[in-house]
Amino acid sequence: MEQNKKVTIEDIAARANVSKSTVSRVLTSTARVADDKRAAVLQAMSDLDYQPNIFARGLAGGQSMTIGVLTQNFGSPFYDAILRGILQGLDGSGYSAIFTDGRWARASEEEALRTMLGRQVDGIIVVGGYSDGATLAKVAAQAPLIVVGRKVAELADRCLWVDNFQAAYDATRYLLDNGHRRIAHIAGALAHDDAAARRDGYVHALEDAGIAVNGDWIIEGDFLSQSGLLAVEMLFTRGALFSAIFAANDQMAAGARLALHRRGIRVPQDVTLIGFDNVADAAYMIPPLTTVNQPAAEMGETAANAMLQLLKGKAIELPVFTTELVLRESVARLP
Amino acid sequence: MEQNKKVTIEDIAARANVSKSTVSRVLTSTARVADDKRAAVLQAMSDLDYQPNIFARGLAGGQSMTIGVLTQNFGSPFYDAILRGILQGLDGSGYSAIFTDGRWARASEEEALRTMLGRQVDGIIVVGGYSDGATLAKVAAQAPLIVVGRKVAELADRCLWVDNFQAAYDATRYLLDNGHRRIAHIAGALAHDDAAARRDGYVHALEDAGIAVNGDWIIEGDFLSQSGLLAVEMLFTRGALFSAIFAANDQMAAGARLALHRRGIRVPQDVTLIGFDNVADAAYMIPPLTTVNQPAAEMGETAANAMLQLLKGKAIELPVFTTELVLRESVARLP
DNA sequence: CATTTGTTTGAAAGCGGTTTCATACAGGGT
DNA sequence: ACCCTGTATGAAACCGCTTTCAAACAAATG
Question: For chain B, does the N or the C end have fewer beta carbons within 10 angstroms?
Answer without folding.
Answer: C
